[in-house]
Each structure stands twice: as structure tokens, then as C-alpha cells.
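Appendix B.2, paired examples.
Example (i):
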Amino acid sequence: MPPLTGSNAIVSEAFEKLAPFMLRAHQVLVGRERLIHLRKRLAFVLMTTDMSERSRRELAAIFSCPQVFAYTSEDIERIFGFRNSKLLGFQKGPLADAALRALRETFGPAQPEEPCE
């Protein structure tokens, strides 16, 4: 059984172990406008579960890469140190591939399945 955070949400230990390396390699991007601008360089986007349904629909139409709905904004702050962030992008590369694989094992397949162009 996977461990639980303080908010009783499921976490991916493998993903959390990769987080410091992704930060050091500058593979994690924050900010809606920045992610939209760099959307062709993204391996996947991570949307928090506390994001509004309207925002999810709007962003799903923009990003053609896999979208993972996991964690809360408090978890993102704990893991990455970004306050009040509900949307993270991960640049293409081996670290992002490993992170996506870890998230899929824990939370199931991402939406949609085709990679970014």
C-alpha cells in the first residue's frame, strides 16, 4: 500500500525522489503563460486535484502532451517548493520520462496518451 501524506492523498515515492534532480536540472516549469509558450518542449503537465474543472478543460484543449491529475497545491509546495502552484510542466528528457513512468504506476495512465509534438 502506498504511503499517505498529511492530507491522506496517495503519493508516488519514486516521483518524489526524482523531484530534487528535476529542480536542479531546471526541468520543472511553473506559470500558465510560460507553459503555454513552451508547450512544444513539454513531456507532460501535472495538474493538481484542487484545480477548478473549468481551468482543467481550458488547459486540456491547449496542451497536447500527457496530462496527469495528481497531488494538491500543498503537496506541490512540499515537494518542489512552489507556493500556490496548481500547474507544473516538465521539459522533455530522461528525467521527465522517469517521472511520468512513476506517476503512471501510482495514479494510472495520463490523459491523453499521445506525446507532445
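Example (ii):
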Amino acid sequence: MGYVEKVIQDIQDDDPKVRRKAVQILEVIENEKVLDPLIKALKDEDERVRGIAARALGKFEKDELAEHLIELLGDEHYFVRGCAADALGEIGSEEAVDHLVEVLREDKVWVQDETAKALIKISHPTGISALEDWLREG
């Protein structure tokens, strides 16, 4: 078994710390064979695993990953929502703009910041207009 395969196996470990480390390692391995394990990690019970997996998927810049990340914008934990917004910005997903606009109104400042950066990266007119309104509202 190779190193990447061992790390992929660690994503299923009982210990959330081991799963977090595994996802962090996969985040820097931009290889197609880590996509499915990262997508599965989006459903992990640990919010850090979900968030790191979301952020890692953004590095692949594949539009087809957007649907998985959009779903995470409604996650119960702010860390996951912020990481999902960041990843959607990295992908440049125009499909996510309306969802990101909704998240922009959320009460966690860090999530707002990540969402604003994502909308700027995507640069869709709807998102830019929403950002301008959000900034005026202060």
C-alpha cells in the first residue's frame, strides 16, 4: 500500500484527530484519486474534517464539485460554512452565487469575510451588486 492509499484509509479512522490530519495531507495532494475520499469526508461528524475537506476540494477548481460545497453553506458549524464559501470562490462557481449571497447575511464575521472574498473571485454581476449593498448596509 502506497502513502496516499494509507492516508485515504486514515480518513475512516475512529479518531477525529487522525481523520483531520489525513484530510490536511490530502489537501496538498492535488491528485484525482483523492477526490472521492474528500467528497466522503464532507459528511464526517467532525466539523474540522468537513471544513478542511471542503477547502481541499476548492483547490481542484472543478465546477462539478460545486454542488457538494453549496450544500455545506447550510452546515450547522460556521467553520464548515466559511471553508465551503472559500472553496466555491476558488472554483469560481457561478452556480453558487445566489447561495453565497444568502450566506453573506450570516452573523459570523469570518463567514461573511470568506463569502465576500468568494463573491469577488467569482465576479458575477449579481454577487458584486449584493456585495455593494452589503457594504452600504455596514
